[in-house]
Amino acid sequence: MPKIKIAPSILSADYGDLNHFLQGLEPFSDIFHVDVMDGNFVPNLSIGAPVVACIKTTIPLDCHLMVLNPERYFESFAKAGAHSIIIHVESSKNMKKDIEKIQSLGCDAGVAINPSTSVSKLEKILPLVDQVLVMSVNPGFGGQPFMAEVLPKISWIREHYPNLDIAVDGGIDDKTAVYAKAAGANIFVAGNYILKDDNPKEAAEKLRKAVI
Ligand code: DX5
Ligand code: ZN
Questions:
Q1: pLDDT tens-place string over residues 126-138
Q2: DSSP run (H or E) holding 112
Q3: Domains defined along the chain, listed by start
């Protein structure tokens, strides 16, 4: 089982004070998860590469692209400092080409899968990726309830890829993370649970203790 990692999702952060806020969370975080939404692939808008370029942190940034035509943006996110670029199996027109392009830019490549998409859609691409991100809500918004029906998908991936980084994203708290860990996830993305807490550092620590 790969290393357990806690990944606060900055979607729920105060963007007006982002760097200050993230600096405080650095000692409690392994990854900062950055949600990129285009208002087309998902019914919401968030941020693009220019904002990512302004983030000053030593923590790796995983950019989760919830966009149509993701290939248009790989170079700008790589230049902006993304450590990983995660694309959706539902929006990529050529997964193999996209994954290879991301890796050729010096970034890790991840594939994300929506709750209603069958894991069979990933079978061919999993040997090529650095990370798989299993959505445990329908993408687009923070603060939605965890969908336990995605757990068998995580178990299937872990069974076939014992060393792969498996992230779970959506509705993660100190209780749902335990189910996701038992299924085989090792990266826990959490937006509201950490960032909307009165004490985000304590919430991040509580989440880590639940899964360590
Ligand atoms: C949802 C995003 C998530 C979101 C999670 O579309 O991909 O990363 O920030 O937020 P919570 O943890 O509040 O469900
Ligand atoms: Zn996300």
A1: 999 999 999 999 9
A2: strand 108-113
A3: 5-211 (3.20.20.70)
